[in-house]
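Narrative progress, year one. The postdoctoral researcher (J.K.) led the effort to move from monomer predictions toward full complexes, under supervision of the PI. The following entry was the first complex the group processed end to end, covering 299 residues in total.
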Amino acid sequence: MKRFFLGWTRFVVLLLVLQVGLAGWGAVTEGEERVMRFIAHVGNGGMLMFWLMLSVVFALLARPGRKAVLLTVLSAVMIFMQGAFAYGFGDEGAGGGVGIALHALNGLGILAVQAAVARLAKRAVDATRAPRVRAGSEVPA
Amino acid sequence: MNTVFAKILRIWMLLLTLLLVVQFALAGFGIGYGGALEDGFGMHFANGNALLYLYAAAIPLALASRAGAAPVWLTALGAFLVLLQHGMALVNVPGTLWGQSLFLFHALNGLALVFLAHRTGVLVRNRIRERSAAGPTRGGRTGHAADEAPASAGPEAS
């Protein structure tokens, strides 16, 4: 389960990186409604909300350490704030600008937190593997 | 290693990392402000220009710090990637598949730059720490002379 959580977190990190790219994709589209211009970003973002909720469940099952679990919960909370930043500050003008600026910073924050979780998950996997290797080496080859 | 320049370079890389993160916020501001690339992107463009020059200035700092070849190459790579960001912005055509794919890479390249600037700073920090842990004479003239000794012994041996 710890191995699965590591792989899953790395998959989420990959999707978060892709999400930054899709934001760039949407930035130079043309049209009226922002949601339609950023449709790939919005679609992937909606899925990421679900994936990070699953991450919390997986973290609780995999038990990679208290810190990793808390950081996973934090990133899930942060990704819910993304919706508030994107839609809660209006569509244009300085208000809308500040909203999306916070949206971008918070997005980078989610990526950083998930990268930290991936590193902690790797450490947890290595910690389970180490005793097994030591036990194996008791038998002379 | 020149400890003074190495420390300046370390702080410089922190500054560049900060400005690169701010650059993401300013890009977001431009999108939220008007949507089109003209309005609201002024600060993103100004900060982008500043980043080009400040990242280019990190190369002579890396050379002067004499902390090995890696920081020099990494800062040069960073400056090149910032230049690439400007190039992508210049040849972009909004509303086309070409422009959209290009800006997918513009965003990913920006993300890579944050990572690169951060890791370069960490590398320089670790080199400084190794240096100060290696000998009680930290930096200054004596440390400099110790660096020179094996280099001047090279031509004699060959």
